[in-house]
Amino acid sequence: MSGPIQTEPALHYLVDAVSDYAIYMLDPEGCVASWNTGARRLKGYDAAEIRGRSFAEFFTPEDRAAGVPQDILQRAARDGRVEVEGWRLRKDGSRFWALGTLHAIRHPGGTLVGFAKVTRDMTERKAAQEALAASERQFRLLVSGVVDYAIFMLDPHGVVTNWNTGAQNIKGYTVDEIVGRHFSVFYTDEDRAAGAPDRALATAAAQGRYEAEGWRVRKDGSPFWALVIIDAIKDETGALVGFAKITRDITEKRQAELELQRAHEQLAQAQKLEALGKLTGGVAHDFNNLLMVVSGQAQLLRRKVGDDARALRALDAIEASARRGEDLTRALLSFSRRQRLVLSPTALPERADGLRELLSASLPPAVRLDLDLPEGLWPVTVDIGELELALLNLAVNARDAMPGGGSLSIQAENVSLDGSGPGDLAGDFVAVTLQDSGTGIAPDILPRIFDPFFTTKDVDKGTGLGLSQVFGFAQQSGGHVTVDSELGQGTRFTLYLPRADRAPRPLADDAPLPPASSARILLVEDNPDVADVAARMLEELGHEVRTVSSGAAALGALATGETPDLIFSDIVMAGDPDGLGMARRVREAFPHVPILLATGYSEAAARIGDEFPILRKPYKLAELSRALSERLALREASKLVDLEAERRARGGAGV
User: β-strands 520-524, 566-570: how paired?
Assistant: First the structure.
């Protein structure tokens, strides 16, 4: 058997077998003294070609001219070891990036005997590093160039470590102002107090990502609505090294979404109103005709029973039920904006005493009423009857919220709105505010209080239509109603009523007219029961009545030459023409015959405007008397004008 391998030959074999590293010896002057396989593969020289030649031949001309090879030898001799990177040359002139280490070799006595040189080709690693560096530069340029997004890094504790242009644009801080500060500075005081920043980082660390929307604060203190994304950054071992944070200002987007949501809500409300209006309109006419029969007959019977207490109590109950039915229909029509309003300029201060008396009657002694309608209020354009009903409904609502007593304050003031306030109103309005000291309304109930039939009261305590009437009245009058309430703090309703463009009529003009003298009246009504009660009411007022059941029959009666003193007609009737069409034909053929129309509800009535006077069913005997007196008085005045004109014409002809 052969003996153990000798140390020096074994080391020679080991070095020569290394092919990934160039390992060779230099003499003290830098000339090559030995050469391994790795050196031959890396640099391209055979051992015979390179031995005895200076290692400076591996350096680029620029480095040789700069004395780099000599400098490396001197440093290695002085320090014992030198490690350098740089471009080196192969035999064929091609370049490669080398990592070289030069060790000084000394005799035990300290004399320099040469150098050991190890060189590795690092071209691929350098290319990768340069590619990475280029990528990082491009990424930094990209991130820095983004102006619509705030993109920045946080350390594991939430401290800002870098900052891009978008972050400066959105948040207002420069790099020097924000780097090193905690990112919680971007949160509102409320969110910081609630621990929102810490929760965001904890979620990102645990789940890898956190995403949310919310209010954030700029350097100048102004808020903006932000979309925030926080991604956890971890190293190859899974350790958290920081967070990448992206913030976008989506205030405009949120405003657009809110506006779209409001538009959808308004559309839903409009559709609900339309559906309710169709339903209500379909039944209101027939229902009011029924009420007309009930209440009319009760009024006529009251004149016949004398002092019979039991009969009078029965009639009171009948009339009260009829009024309740009328109010229900009226409230539904008002909410659906299909109630025909008789709008006129009204001075609220002149109505103060009447309103105080009306409202006080519905309030218990334990509720104090304070009414303040100052003289300087602008006149408003309203239907005074509907306004009184709206205020009464609000007062009743306040009363029920104060079972143990309290106070109800009603105040009014002039306001000018620019379209950005309540109901997007613009122009001059009188704001009538009712403030109670009651229990208040719960937040989850508040959005529903104007819905028809919605009530929190017991079944026998309310219909759920009172506030619906208030809402419909305000909208149909060209105004708006708002409500503010907190549990235990009371409720405040504010009615915005449009300013009138002309002066109101003095209250003295509302004095009752004297009853009209007996007149010949043509009654046009297609419902036999209603026709019967209307004819009897007219006769009770002392008039001579002829009844026909259609518009065509009325025109036929006029064609016979018998011209009545007044025509009293329903609007909605079967056949052609209906009440309105008949009235227009009569006006053309008989302009001096006054016409009074009546209806419980009609789409046509809403389009009539001031073309013809309309009496709303079910009407009271006194209301019928007043309407007839007004129309007949106008007829008499017209006759006098015609007689005067005829007299003057005759006098002129005589001359």
Answer: parallel
Lowest mean pLDDT among 86-90, 196-200, 284-288, 433-437: 284-288
In order of 201, 415, 470, the CA distances from 422 in angstroms are 41, 11, 15
Q: How far is CA 525 from CA 403, 568, 624, in A?
A: 47, 9, 15
Q: Considering Cα of 96, then 99, then 104, then 105, what sign does the dihedral take?
A: negative
What amino acid is encoded at 309 in this protein?
A
Q: What residues form DSSP beta bridges with 426?
A: 418
User: Helical H runs in 146-243?
Assistant: 165-171, 175-178, 189-193, 196-207
> How far apart are the C-alpha atoms of 509 and 525, rounded to whole Å?
31
What's the CA gap between 154 and 205, in Å, rounded? 12
Are 85 and 99 in contact, with CB atoms under 8 Å apart? Answer: yes
Give which of 238, 247, 161, 236 is closest to 200, Cα–Cα.
247
Contact residues for 90 (Cβ-Cβ < 8 A; gap 6+): 42, 43, 44, 96
Beta-ladder partners of 229: 211, 246
Amino acid at 176: D
CB 439 within 8 Å of CB 487:
yes
The Cα 327–Cα 323 span in angstroms is: 6
Alpha-carbon distance values, 650 to 470, 637, 642, 646 (Å): 58, 20, 12, 6
For the CA atoms of the chain, what is the radius of gyration? 50
Tens-place pLDDT, residues 100-132: 999 999 988 889 999 999 999 998 888 878 777
In 556-599, the DSSP E strands lie at 566-570, 595-599
What is the distance, to the nearest Å, from the Cα of residue 648 to the centroid of all Cα atoms in its chain?
A: 68
Whether the pTM exceeds 0.90: the reply is no
Sheet strands (E) in 208-313: 209-217, 223-234, 240-249
Please report the pLDDT score of residue 104 as a whole number.
Answer: 93
Side-chain-side CA neighbours of residue 540 (13 Å): 19
2 is written with which tokens?
Answer: 């052969």
Side-chain-side CA neighbours of 555 within 13 Å: the count stands at 18
Cα 482 to Cα 488: distance, rounded to the nearest angstrom: 19
601-630 mean pLDDT = 78
For the record, the structure tokens of 546 come out as 């002829």
Q: Which two tokens stand for residue 162?
A: 């870098």
CB atoms within 10 A of CB 356: 15
Q: What does DSSP assign to residue 186?
A: G
Q: Is 128 exposed, middle or buried (0-12, 13-18, 19+ CB in 10 A)?
A: exposed
Residue 518: what pLDDT? 84
In order of 44, 46, 82, 94, 116, the CA distances from 21 in angstroms are: 13, 15, 17, 18, 12
Mean pLDDT of the chain: 84
Distance between terminal CA atoms of the chain? 173
Q: How many DSSP H helices and E strands does the chain contain?
A: 20, 20
Classified as helix, coil or strand, 110 is coil
Of 22-31, 273-282, 388-397, 621-630, minimum mean pLDDT range: 273-282
Q: Per-residue pLDDT tens for 152-175?
A: 999 999 999 999 888 999 999 999
Burial class (CB in 10 A: 0-12, 13-18, 19+), 496: buried
Helical (H) or strand (E) element with 123: helix 123-145
pLDDT-derived band of residue 424, with 50, 70 and 90 as boundaries?
confident
β strands within 91-174, DSSP E: 95-106, 112-121, 149-154
